[in-house]
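Lab notes, practical 5.
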Amino acid sequence: MRKLFSLLAVSGLVLLASSGFAHAGILEDAMNAVNSLVSGIQGLLSAVASILIFFLTYRVIKKALNRA
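Output from the prediction step:
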């Protein structure tokens, strides 16, 4: 997923830079912003996965204790 976002962002930025509308500083800032966004999305997905694993584990343990 991160590769897809990065590839799309870099492709768009390269297209923008080649057309002459972007300076090196703007291009670098845009790439940093995209990388930060991708990292934030990965962190959010990781947190959601951790919470989901916690609740699933809790349900399995609770069910096992009720059977015992």
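Observations recorded by the TA: The chain is about 90% helix and 0% strand. The first helix runs from residue 2 to 18.
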